[in-house]
Structure prediction request, 719 residues.
Amino acid sequence: MKLIIAEKPSVAGEIAKVVGATKNEKGYKSGNNYLVSWCVGHLIELSPPEAYSETYKTWNLADLPILPRADSYRTMVSPGTRDQFEIVKELMHRADVDELIEATDAGREGELIFRLVYEQAGCTKPFSRLWISSMEEKSIRDGLASVRPSSDYDSLYYAARCRQRADWVYGMNLTRLYTKLYQNAGTLNCGRVQTPTVNLIVQRSKDIKDFKSTTYYNLIAELASDDLHFEARTRADSSERAEELIRLCAGRTGTVTDIKEENKTENPPALYDLTTLQRDANRLLGYSAQQTLDLAQTLYEKKLSTYPRTDSRYLTTDMTGSTKILIDGLQDNGFFEVLNLKNYDFNSINVENVINDGKVSDHHALLPTVLLTPETYQELPTAEKNIIALITFRLLSAVYAPYRYMTTKVALDIEGVTFDAAGKTVLDAGFRNIVNCMKAFLKKGAEEQDKEQILPALQEGGQYTAKAVRKEEKKTQPPKPYTEDTLLSAMETCGKDIEDEAFRAAMKDRGLGSPATRAGIIENIIKTGYIIRDGNKLLPTDKAVQFMGVVVDQIKQPDLTAEWEYQLAEIQRGNLTEAEFMLGIYDFIWKFTKACLTALENGDLKAAFTERRSQQPSLGACPNCGGDVVKGKFGAYCAKKCGMNVSRIMGAELSDSQIKNLLAGKKILLKGLTSKKGGTYDVYLIPEGVEPYSYVKADGTTVSGHQFKFKKEFPKKEK
Prediction:
């Protein structure tokens, strides 16, 4: 009997269909000499310090540092995990199970999930590894036909286990340390990746606050000769100088002193990895990184897209033929018509654009699958439709023709003052046609047109009259606050300024966090009160600003993460042992903790936090009592605590912009709500005052408050 262990029930279900395990059992499926079970994500976790001793329930500086024991793992306490672990454990030990296959997600975390269960269950049976990137039947069959020895992934597991234990030691000790050092600040969560991420946002806020804008002036000369008209520009640093140049140049003759023409080519973008998909979904659709990850995971489990937690934007050579077949299939089944692409030629695509074996590690780039059809697409909720459309448009853009254009730069002399004119002529819009179709499809408008004018035919020595010269006052602009789009980019590229060459190289293709964890990191720094969402902007709270003011550079800069990533990669390559890595971590935590405690004893600790106060921006006036509605840990609430509920409506969590519109008396659109019959629908909600509510909780207590009254309006269906 073969036992296959997947990471999630949905994945196990797809594998079970392929192998013929069609009988439903409690916690697994059986049939055709197969048992297929699952882990429900992580079933095993590192025990908290209080599991070692009751004394650790109270946080004390004298107890630090706390290091994990060898037997420090336990079954997770979340609902259902203990029962599922017992089922998997029993299946592993069944006498008739003679072959075990690990089928958790193909990556570092997936490896950790299975191995911890395997070890906690005390299983010693040999096992093989299924490593696939798609839930399509063919991919599963091919993977099962070529399972690999578990020993091929031992070093991956060692690196995963080291990462987990090191993060536990780091986060648990430093969170307790800083929380006790600055006791009036509340809990100060500290993490190897989380803290540098908070620092990015705090530093950006400081740069904006400290920015000193300067004024300058653009001078635009309107030049003409016969039927030729164009504009040329120069710059002045003061209004007086601008007025002087206008008097000098207006009505005078300008002479062309130089012309440069250059043909340029812009190649199509690479395919999506998870981070670039999250960035585009945030920029174009307003989805959070976590929402995008969840949607992509659902599409993967529905077999409509490939594995989402990928850091690669390319495919391998052996995928060249299947990718062409995929594109032909999408065209033949009518999906191009759904995307309004039927008028474009995909017969001469260049799949080689996206082939690069050297840039594919665990998983290739995100792709739609051959199961994506007009019919399967129409069954999806709106948000899933948008994500699969983005993935498909990116595939088609990536294999399309380059964007080709010609630039022209002209220099003119007007009374000794140099004016410059720039123009651009599009020779072949290429893949930008697909990008514009994508934006039109998502109702985001076409791509911004190039601002350069189309210059007429000019010649060196040609003379043109400056019929008018006008000035435009401009100001230098501060950096913009981070959005999830730009923060993901900063996290991805973080570390490029690290001095150590080896550590900088380790961060080059990784940055802060991984594609699979960045969304969770962003959600966590919001949940722990360091960051708030203001519309699409991410802003630091007073707590974050003060924390970054007292935490040392060693903790808030990315250098430590870079060093860890370098060493974890060395473990995967077999050049470093787990013991060597963990001894380094323990040594760091021990020395750092003792240095902070010594500074406390000597009075050298940085100044304590000021009294905490809310600096949350108001989202609007409470319709019940007139107080400010602000964001809290569990959603938006009335600061006067009148009981007005403005966080969730009809089961949907509201965005800040939706809350602002409701408070302003404007209607909002809720998308993808689930009906009683299991379908989805969209609805407009129009606020019509407030009404009281109350309900009895399971413990018998009564909860009451106020909520919006609404008039519902359903969007008109497109014909």
